[in-house]
Amino acid sequence: MKRLFVLSFAAMLMISAAACDDDDAQNLRENVEDATGSAGARAAAEAMRGALEAQDLDGGKSLRDVAVLRENAEDVPGDPAVEGIADADGDGKDDDGRVELHVGEQAACVTVSAENDVSVENGECAT
Ligand SMILES: [Ca+2]
């Protein structure tokens, strides 16, 4: 009788462990779908923000420098299309500090303030 109890207890443990695995697998699938689907552009923009915030600004560099923006945009995983890095007046700095990242149909906007603060918004950059 005791042996039967131990066996059924072990079976219950196995069943609940299996249930947990299913939940984890489901969560993982949802995370992957988020990363590759609707949130792709946002994830790319957040990756660029992280890279910019880690940027070494020695030697008078600014996060609005075209070279700095290009370099950090190129390092974003997933190879998003990058728009909005422009230097019309030729001072080496992006004109409005806004960089738009496109992944599939989605867009997100990275904004660098004149004080080197970086923010991210969903959708295309406001003009
Ligand atoms: Ca400029």
Mind explaining what this structure looks like?
This protein has 127 residues and is an alpha+beta fold. It has two domains: 1-36; 40-122. It is 46% helix and 17% strand. It has a four-stranded antiparallel sheet with strand order 1-2-3-4, covered by helices on one side. The longest helix is centred in the N-terminal third of the chain and has 35 residues, at 2-36. The termini are far apart. 25% of the residues are buried. The model has no long low-confidence stretch (mean pLDDT 86). Bound molecules: calcium ion (CA). Calcium ion (CA) is lined by residues 87, 89, 91, 93, 95.
Layout of SSEs?
Elements: H1 2-36, H2 40-53, H3 66-74, E1 81-83, E2 98-103, E3 106-112, E4 118-122
Antiparallel strand pairs: 1-2, 2-3, 3-4
The protein binds calcium ion.
Quick gist of this model?
The protein is of the alpha+beta class. It has three helices and four strands.
Tags for this model:
alpha+beta, single chain, binds calcium ion, 127 residues, four-stranded antiparallel β-sheet, 2 domains, 3 helices
Low-confidence stretches: none
What's the story with the biggest beta sheet? 4 strands, antiparallel
Strand content: 15-25%
Helix content: 40-55%
What small molecules are bound in this structure? calcium ion
Strand order of the largest sheet: 1-2-3-4
Supply Rg.
23 Å
Q: Total strand count, please?
A: 4
- Count structural domains: 2
- H/E element order: HHHEEEE
Mean pLDDT: 86
Number of contiguous helices: 3
Q: State the separation between the terminal residues, measured CA to CA.
A: 77 Å
